Amino acid sequence: MKAASLIILSVLALILATILLKGLPALNLDMITKTPRGGFYLGKEGGILNAIVGSLYLAGGATLLSLLLSLPIVLYLNVFAGKRSYLAAFTRFSLDVLWGVPSIVYGAFGFTIMLFLGLRASLLGGMIAVTLLVLPIMSRTMDEVMRMVPAELLDASYALGATRVETAFKVMTRQTLPGILTAVLIAFGRGIGDAASVIFTAGFTDHIPGSLLQPAATLPLAIFFQLGTPFPEVQQRAYASALILTIVILFVCVTSRLLIRKSSKNIIK
Amino acid sequence: MIRRAADRLSGWFFQTLTVFSALIVFAMAAGLFLRSRPILMDQSLNRLLFSSSWHPLRGEFGFLPFIMGTLWVTGIAVAIAVPLCILTAVYLSEYAPARIRNFSSPLIDLLAGIPSVVYGIWGVLIIVPFIKDHLAPFFGVFSTGYSALAGGMVLAVMIFPVIIHVIIEVFRAIPYEVREASWALGATRWQTIKHVVLRRGLAGVIAAIVLGLSRAFGETMAVLMVAGNVARLPESVFDPAYPLPALIANHYGEMMSVPLYDSALLFSSLILLTVVLLFNILSRLILIRVSRRTR
């Protein structure tokens, strides 16, 4: 049993070591401040700024959109809906199921939405797909935190004459703020790392997108496309992207851990 | 009065959003179904699912090689992951001191957070050469390394965190008194685990495996990068496989130029969605029942 646990942990160590060993030599100032020159597949100069900025736009936008959608949803589930609400139970179940849907299906679905709206592969299309992808993750994570809030706290707020919406924003949201931030971070981490959902929807380009309707490069796709080239110089860009992506994920993991620890100190139980 | 109205209005608005979010699953299924209708009208379901002739230019769309590719890769992944995960989960929840548990749980979270392309890179750099240079020669076969086995091994690592996490949750839901009762009867720790903990948590463990299975089923990028992608029925684990998700991701560029191609690809995502939904609904229902019974 110890051996099994050790195998799993050493696989993790092996993955991180591989990425570090390959990525560190590839990382330099040019890499993160320049866009690729002469085409991302063939050009041997330049860096991955297009993918870094594209990913930040895409994941940031999708996270924001998803927050705007999921905050009302979880507030409804935890403040407005009763404990025995069928709608709440069904929504939770449906979001759980949605969580398990593979990201390529989100990509395909996003693509059908884009066909419906007449959009081409663009930042906006990618954002739609990634928003759908992270919505269940974000809302279920927030939901789990909000469920921990004792009912007495809400009762106290009602007793002071607050309405439900006031209780929702001034008591519930404030009480669970670190949890909400954690959910946002986790969703961002998932959004920035996902390739399969953006491969149809966001496209890929050498340039930094100037508007929502232009295609956008992303870090995961930068890895995928540039690892497949026969040129070592271009593969370097894939390794550097992988390292940056891994650092972002590490940051998300560590920060969300700290936030959870901090939040459990202050929350009234 | 205004506060009241604001409350009503936002209540209504929040409820509408909630209903919409609950309906996304149905919207997805409906959207994909509508888009895959042309091919379903054109060819029989039987032929689509069980023919192995894949020639889009001639209008022949047999998904069997891809379905079998998915099954091979998923099967290998589950076969590797399940024993390791059960043992690890038992160790972490029953044996390990709190220190080790607190140390390893963020690491497992990290494993869950690593993007699939990064797993893909790792597969290309480590697993594929390993199979090509060591494993395949060891069995006396030639392999490029890009094979069903490589896909399965990478996938196994990717589903570790899902399975471990759910099993640990299930074990935690089993009351401590049950174990104490078993010890009081003179059972050793291992006997207690085997006859009490595992038996009580069996449904939950199965649910965990099914969840892992469905994750493996739909995983795209990592598999796409290491599985070889040859549209043929794999005959051994060292043969390349071409799973369904990889098919979808690989052909997005040409799908608008060949008739019925886009419909075929969206049909394959519909297959994926259907299978994953079934698996997920099944395991979620089991988990809900498990948590209700132990509460």
Features:
heterodimer, A: 269 residues, mainly alpha, MetI-like fold, 74% helix, globular, B: mainly alpha
What does this structure look like?
- Chain A is mainly alpha-helical.
- Chain A has a single domain (28-266), classed as MetI-like (MetI-like fold, Orthogonal Bundle), CATH 1.10.3720.
- Chain A has helices at residues 2-26, 29-33, 49-80, 86-99, 103-117, 123-147, 151-159, 164-175, 177-193, 219-227, 232-266.
- Chain A is globular and about 70 Å long.
- The model of chain A has no long low-confidence stretch (mean pLDDT 86).
- The relative contact order of chain B is 0.14.
- Chain B has a two-stranded antiparallel ribbon.
- In chain B, strand 1 and strand 2 form a beta hairpin.
- The two termini of chain B are 43 Å apart.
- Chain B is an all-alpha fold and 295 residues long.
- Chain B is built from 12 helices and 2 strands.
- Chain B has one domain: MetI-like (MetI-like fold, Orthogonal Bundle).
- Chains A and B meet through helix 1, helix 3, helix 4, helix 5 and helix 6 of A and helix 1, helix 3, helix 4, helix 5 and helix 6 of B.
How does the overall form of chain B come out from the CA principal axes? globular
Most extensive chain interface and residues per partner: A-B, 81 and 81 residues
CATH class label of chain A: Mainly Alpha
Q: Report the strand count of chain B.
A: 2
Biggest sheet character of chain B = 2 strands, antiparallel
Q: Pick out the low-confidence regions of chain B.
A: none
Order of helices and strands of chain B: HHEEHHHHHHHHHH
Per CATH, which architecture of chain A? Orthogonal Bundle
Structural class of chain A: mainly alpha
- Provide mean pLDDT of chain A, rounded: 86
Please report the number of helical segments of chain A.
11
Largest sheet of chain A: none
Give the CATH topology of chain B: MetI-like fold
In the CATH scheme, the class of chain B would be Mainly Alpha
**Gap between N and C termini of chain A, in Å?**
37 Å
